[in-house]
Amino acid sequence: MDLTRATDAPWLLRRVRPMGGAAVDVLVQAGRIAAIGPELAPPAGTPEEEGGGALLLPGLVESHTHLDKTLWGLPWYRNAVGHRLIDRIDNEREFRAASGHDAATQSMRLARAFLATGTTRLRSHVDIDTQAGLRHLAGVQRTAAALAPWLQIQTVAFPQSGLLGRPGTADLLDAAMAEGVDVLGGLDPCAIDGDPVRSLDVLFGLADRHGKPLDIHLHEPGAMGAFSLGLILERIAALGMQGRVAVSHAFCLGDLPAAEVHALLARLAELDVALITSAPPSRSVPPLLAARAAGVTVAGGNDGIRDTWTPYGRPDMLARAMQIGLRYNLRRDDEIDEALDCVTAAGARACGFAAYGLAPGCRADLVLVEAETAAEAVVAQPRRRLVVAGGQIVARGGEVLAGLPEG
Predict the structure, then answer these.
(1) Radius of gyration of the chain from its Cα atoms, rounded to whole angstroms
(2) Superfamily of domain 11-58+358-398
(3) Which residues make up the CATH 3.20.20.140 domain(s) of the chain?
(4) For residue 12, which of 28, 23, 24 has the smallest C-alpha distance?
(5) DSSP result, 160-195
(6) pLDDT of 33-49, one tens digit each?
(7) What is the pLDDT of residue 8?
């Protein structure tokens, strides 16, 4: 069913291979998978789309990006910023203020590009600070509302400049919660805020008062990061926030002695805390396979894409899955499947996206590619033959269809 057809009418996707398995048909109705199996017999007159034995994936999941920051589609940005984290934070804030950066236009450009490559669920951190206020948030919320039938966008109120160093930031985060933000974000309570106890007390207090989940950027290395992570875990246990907190980056877990990492992974699993990694080549990363073996959900995301922080990245989660595979030296097909899981089912779990998967009752988010196996899809990253989002065909051949909002 393309964008011109009624959204509740049934239609059939013929002869596709879920995750590379045997060929089946998929019956879609009212935006959901109504049935899946070989040689389905739908009611007479049901429209059909031929899959031709192509590989079927569930809609891809971007667990950590920054739609509001992107320069996607704009002229090349000459990056001459310093190498410290605070240099990048200050430079970005100054650039956006001077250039009049439009988060609504830019988030829509990048969100449409994500849809074209099969991403149907996405979590975006949005800068909240005393200079821009809630302006960037309003832009991303506009995009999220316009694309809601097809691309589910979670917004995270993110204090990119720190929570304590700029008085008034906590009040702005409080206001963002009232504006309907889905998740509260945090950032480096030691390295940026300089007072981890107070920083986390304020952050968890806001989350608890508004009943919102948390996603905390933790760039801090080694012992510093382990200290912050320990404080975070203490508060999760004290407030009963199990299953409602994700830690993004968690570089410290790649720096610590094995015994300390093992203990932290066990505690993360016990408290159902998800880890979200962009698998950067230049930083230590949490141990993917060990974390999964310990029962920790590990999801994947791009972080920034083509912005003042980095010229790299593109809105293709199969490409990010390959980055994860390369960073963790995953070579066997079953290991590459783990990388794909980071941008599919594990991503949905980490972000709390419901009704996800390739089973009856799930939202009909489907991606069709020419590949023999899921591992080949990750490595070859073929053009998306078909993308179905919320039960409607939204892209063919890597291009979004006419009728989707543009801004």
Answers:
(1) 21
(2) Urease, subunit C, domain 1 (2.30.40.10)
(3) 60-351
(4) 28
(5) TT-SSSSTTHHHHHHHHHHTT-SEEEEE-TTTTTS-
(6) 999 999 999 999 999 99
(7) 84
